[in-house]
Amino acid sequence: MLDSTRINPTIVMKYLALILAVLTAPLMLTGCTSGDADAFGCATFLSEEGTMTSPDVDMTEGSEFGRGLLSQFTSFRLTTDLSMLSENECRMLPHLFAAADQMESIFWKQAWGNRDELLDSIDDPALREYAKINYGPWDRIGGNAPFLDGIGDKPAGSNLYPPDMSKAEFEAAAVADPELAGLYTMVVRDADERLKAIPYHEAFADEMQRASDELGAAAEYADDPGLKEYLMLRAEALMTSDYQPSDMAWMDMKDNRIEIVIGPIETYEDALFGYKAAAEAFVLIKDMSWSERLSRYASLLPMLQEGLPVPPEYKQETPGTDSDLNAYDAIYYAGDTNAGSKTIAINLPNDEQVQLAKGTRRLQLKNSMQAKFDKILVPISGLLIAEDQREYVTFDAFFGNTMFHEVAHGLGIKNTLDGSSTVRGALKEHASALEEGKADILGLYMVSKLIEEGEEEGDLRENMVTFLAGIFRSVRFGASSAHGRANMIRFNFFSEMGAFTRDDATGTYRADYDKMILAMNALTEKILRLQGDGDYEGVAQFVDEYARVPQQLQADLDRLADAGIPVDIVFEQGLAAVAK
């Protein structure tokens, strides 16, 4: 059950007691190298307790409706080779997991409210499990439709704003109090029913304090100076809601094997304005050999930016070349990133000032990516891709498309041409979907450009067909997801330009390679112009026109469901899971 992995203070104290006991042992005085961590016993610092198991409840329990919803997910255990970790790195893991777990509690409050009250009210065990996956009673891969009786539509602003607040009321109040639109504030009503901004470090003071303390404890064991500095600054940021210094420090980390991404980060949960960041966390282990292979791509960003198929003013910004591109195994997801469909790559930070000064870091989650490829993309291809093109659906192309999607976030433009706003600020609730659409299409552009320039080996047909199959995978995330909307836009735009055709006799789709290039360039220009112009109304019209599921596509997606192909994955994760 998803709930069973939550790490409580009693369990953390057990870990600390165990650590203190082991510290007194003579064996510990000799230390260990990264190659003999398992011989020493990295599992010494892990526990059978505190595990978050997969949501594969007994499928004979619960209603048929609830079991049908749960069947859309397939489970995958998050683990990695712990033998690469040093003694001190092993000691960090319980603290990092405990810090990440606080983001679970915060995100439940941001997305819904009182978690336990909701779960205790659900008698159906399958629906209770589904509420855990969705962090509330709305189906994130089903257009946010309520799946519990008596539950209305999901508020566009989730629980980040008062449910009775109108857009007009907010906009009027924000003129007098700009903090209402801050990334790191909850909006509530005061005693006089006026809108009031409460900083996250005050609204979630207990959770932020515990997370900060755990990061500080982890920093004590960090041998890498960059990681130690980041952990200390991030611990401080959680208590002040000033995240830029820790974002800068995070960009300066280069050699650390253990990684934690933690805090209020993405704004997807705020579908009202796109202003509010939601709490999330990842704990990751770097794959050093894969990361070395990927490191050279960041230096190519200026060349790729210069070649974008748009007028010069829409590519005038110079992307940072200090960006990192690395591969990781994920061993813990928490909060926003664990809700509904799961992230398989990360591009951060979102702060435009940090991006222009230092670029971004792109983190490819290799084990999660492999799970989605094997369990979802390959079966989809067997049903919806033309038989003679299925050979071009490969993991290397899937990894490459996903990787370049993240790199592509660094291309294009971050501020509107008139200098009045960031693109994110100008496009509000539509910014995320358009940015994800930009990254998808520019990812394919980057692959084609690099192959053309001789900077990358490969068969572009693999990337194109895998890209087409990936649309069918991601469009199933639904209209409530920025990634789902981005894929619907691309499907309809590419269909309109003949980039693929459907064979009615076989019910399969075939990529037209030449027309796909034309569609790629046309959609690239469309999106970058909308972003550079800060054209909120134009984007709203574009999303309304293209972010829809045509009847034929819906019928084909229904065929995937009928074939039992899952929509996404859920994790067996936690300290015990990674130690297995």
Note down, in words, how this protein is organized:
- The chain has 580 residues and is of the alpha+beta class.
- The chain contains 25 helices and 13 strands.
- The strands form five sheets. The chain has a five-stranded mixed β-sheet. It has a two-stranded parallel sheet with strand order 1-13. A two-stranded antiparallel ribbon has the order 2-3.
- A hairpin with a 4-residue loop joins strand 11 and strand 12.
- Helix 19 runs antiparallel to helix 20.
- The longest helix is centred in the N-terminal third of the chain and has 25 residues.
- The protein is globular, with a radius of gyration of 23 Å.
- The N terminus is likely disordered.
At a glance:
The chain has helices spanning 9-23, 26-30, 37-40, 64-70, 87-111, 115-120, 125-134, 167-176, 200-203, 205-219, 225-240, 244-252, 288-294, 301-306, 352-358, 366-384, 395-408, 423-427, 431-452, 460-475, 482-496, 513-533, 536-546, 551-562, 575-579; strands at residues 73-77, 138-139, 145-146, 185-189, 195-199, 258-264, 279-287, 324-335, 345-348, 361-365, 500-503, 508-511, 568-572.
